[in-house]
Specification:
DNA-binding LacI/PurR family transcriptional regulator, transcription, alpha/beta, Arc Repressor Mutant, subunit A, 6-stranded parallel sheet, 3 domains, DNA-binding, globular, Rossmann fold
């Protein structure tokens, strides 16, 4: 006779007991939903709901493309976070990151402590120390001495003493160029920020590399990476023949440029297509909605905490880079000239 499926509450309790028995001082992968459903004689829907509850409790963590893991038993009381002085308080990318790391840490009973650069005068800063935003080598050297183990969500290609988790900005630029090229566009403008910002520089490199490969002309306009910078770029574009398409290294530049072009009678995407990056809330609110790339802050935080748990459990200062892929968000700001 077929057994009736376990109710959700009983399934959660049995999974919780099994998790606690399997918990070690490092991440432990649990079986697939299908295997758990068979083991507990439950539906996959019930298993999925139970896993979601245990993730919310902080007992499990889901890593995209890798599976679901038991959070290590090693007690991590506090995460120390330091922001670069260059980061603006209203920066949506870093704001989303701070919200997500606060939420996920709370579920695992971990406190967040913000560290101010003035504290570098102290004998030491407890680790792990998470760095947000661009810092120069002198700052990084002082932090390394003060804290020991550093984790960064910024890419530092020349540093092997920092564990880095970041999105592939070069690939974002290349994907933007390919998308516009495949849609039939053949003259491009790139709205870039200063090269001192790694994300802008790498997105520019990826974009230009693809265009060079396909012998596609590109005009590069360098501006501040904000709305006003985009507006100024639009003024420059209006003094000559418009390109078929524009890639802006962030959404604020893209939105400012769109506004400037529209105010001067240009239509998007009929006259020019445009792609941004970061998927800020405004990207889905403006008209036409902006095609862009989403840098999933929750995914970034999950990978970061996984790396911290792993290195803490191993008592390791090993070198590591985790490169994440941004999701392409197709919207109405890009026309297909092949149709």
């Amino acid at each position: 006779m077929e057994k009736s499926p376990l109710i959700k509450e009983r399934l959660i309790e049995q999974l919780r007991e099994q998790i606690q028995s399997l918990q070690k001082d490092q991440l432990v992968k649990i079986p697939s939903e299908r295997d758990l459903a068979e083991n507990f004689d439950a539906s996959r829907v019930s298993v999925r709901a139970a896993i979601k509850t245990l993730v919310q409790e902080g007992l499990l963590v889901q890593l995209r493309g890798k599976g679901t893991y038991i959070v290590p038993a090693v007690l991590l009381d506090t995460l120390y976070v330091m922001c670069s002085p260059d980061i603006k308080a209203n920066d949506p990318y870093y704001t989303n990151f701070l919200v997500e790391i606060t939420n996920l840490s709370a579920k695992q009973a971990i406190k967040i402590s913000m560290v101010h650069p003035d504290q570098l005068t102290a004998a030491s800063i407890p680790s792990p120390l998470i760095l947000i935003g661009q810092m120069d080598d002198a700052q990084l050297d002082r932090l390394k001495l003060a804290s020991g183990q550093l984790f960064s969500i910024q890419r530092y290609a020349h540093r092997e003493d920092i564990i880095q988790i970041y999105f592939d900005d070069y690939r974002i630029g290349s994907k933007a160029a390919k998308t516009l090229y495949d849609a039939g566009h053949r003259s491009f403008t790139l709205l870039a920020g200063p090269d001192k910002y790694d994300s802008s520089r790498l997105r520019k490199q990826g974009f230009l590399s693809f265009c060079q490969q396909y012998d596609t002309p590109v005009q590069v306009i360098t501006e501040k990476m904000n709305w006003e910078g985009g507006r100024r770029a639009a003024d420059q574009l209006l003094t000559a023949v418009l390109p078929n398409a524009i890639f802006a290294v962030n959404d604020w530049m893209a939105a400012g440029c769109m506004q400037g072009l529209r105010e001067n009678g240009r239509s998007i995407p009929a006259d020019v297509s445009i792609i941004g990056c970061d998927d800020i809330p405004l990207a889905a609110q403006i008209s036409p909605r902006l095609t862009t790339f989403s840098l999933d802050a929750k995914h970034l935080v999950e990978e970061l905490l996984s790396a911290i748990h792993h290195h803490r459990a191993q008592a390791s200062d090993a070198k590591e880079q985790i490169i994440l892929s941004a999701a392409f968000i197709s919207r109405e700001s890009v026309s297909n000239m092949n149709h």
